[in-house]
């Protein structure tokens, strides 16, 4: 990441970041709030509240010198621990509406506790980290809509009344930061890669964020904007139609989060066991914990183990890097495979129907293998207990499952159940036909640990080419229900699928309707390799809850091809 800033003109500027302390909902309440945000945007257009995720502001933005940020982390952890037993198991929220604002107000008794918490953090941060922190002393609130057209008020109110503020919720105190230089700028997200054609243009990759100052655009040619790259800090022109509007908070950094965990909700504790061991430390179970700690504790305590479902996209596929003609780049004159770059797989597994079928059923790249194993090792570090492993029949998914299991050190214990019903939306298949996947026999002969006794829920022959969105949603919902029924044991059901799998498998599980087909593709496009969602069963409440995944995200930059002859020897006679 630092390397990408090598040409950043502001790299050595002593500009401190701005920090804010928020209380954020997770769980069912968060899901309901997200549904409201989506539907309100669809029916009434975007308003100011869509710029930032759902939250209650405890301390608004303040500056802190870089060398003192670690002190903020320690202060937040200490204050969270001291308030853990005071923190209410639920927060009273009542709906309030006006012509320009819609949201939940926090009840007075609970607001007083939160204000006391904010004041304690503010006091310590001011004293120990030399920060001027102002705790929020006004009416504490969770905004639903802000600065909307007055004629939309009734529609927004009706949508808001569908939210039950008493839904299951785990509240998290989170410390965020933003770059103070770009507070009043618009934030754009690159949809496509753009390679500069002129010296004053900016290099962007899909997913990059660009800050745009509205006051600088008046003299820019139509169809272009001038902006500053969030990734590199460099400024230049980019074609406007290569970008889309992003939310203000998309570029914020979450530094630390601590969950207030009611003891009765997540832990069972006998009277002769006053402490719970967590990652080698002995702590009181009602103390606040980071969200990942909470999840790893839930999954590592066998006596309290619940069922969970972890759905992840496969690792980096080889054609994602080298394009659809990747196989032609590696075939010798006599038709043998010879990798042309170290990110091509070193070998391809043997298949009887010929090497050509890998074009439509591509393997992982070398980096994809590394990514998958890294995720497995991270799950092992968090003591996640995987009881079942399911995979789409696509080779890239099976390889991801195999290498995740290797990272977990479970490749000889847990076998991969290949389920055709987990394949992606067939409308997206470029060939317009169902690919010829490797057979279970071929996979086993290639040393993949396949459960050959498993009987699929949806046979491969039942997959319909170019199926409708409704058919895909119905298939996904049906296969997930069958998998959950077939896996009664506690622990995690790990499913390796596609970008489309994260929404289509988890939403029916937690009781949410399918996304509209119009925005489904946009959502899927943003899901990276090894992107994941995690759901946990609340058996006593007979429902599933979406919570933070047990491991952190995996982020890395692009690494372009390098030709030493053209780059180093250029200009020499």
TrEMBL record:
InterPro entries (alphabetical): His_Pase_superF_clade-1, His_PPase_superfam, Phosphatase_SH3-domain, SH3-like_dom_sf, SH3_domain
One GO term describing the cellular component: nucleus
Entries under CDD domains matching the protein: HP_PGM_like
Superkingdom as given in the UniProt entry: Eukaryota
PROSITE patterns: SH3 (PS50002)
SUPFAM superfamilies hit by this protein: Phosphoglycerate mutase-like, SH3-domain
The keyword rRNA-binding is assigned to this record: no
GO biological process: negative regulation of T cell receptor signaling pathway
Keyword Nucleus: yes
Chief localisation class: cytoplasm
Pfam families attached to this UniProt entry: His_Phos_1, SH3_9
Domain SH3: 183-248
PANTHER family reported for this sequence: UBIQUITIN-ASSOCIATED AND SH3 DOMAIN-CONTAINING BA-RELATED, UBIQUITIN-ASSOCIATED AND SH3 DOMAIN-CONTAINING PROTEIN A
Protein name: Ubiquitin-associated and SH3 domain-containing protein A
Organism the protein comes from: Meleagris gallopavo
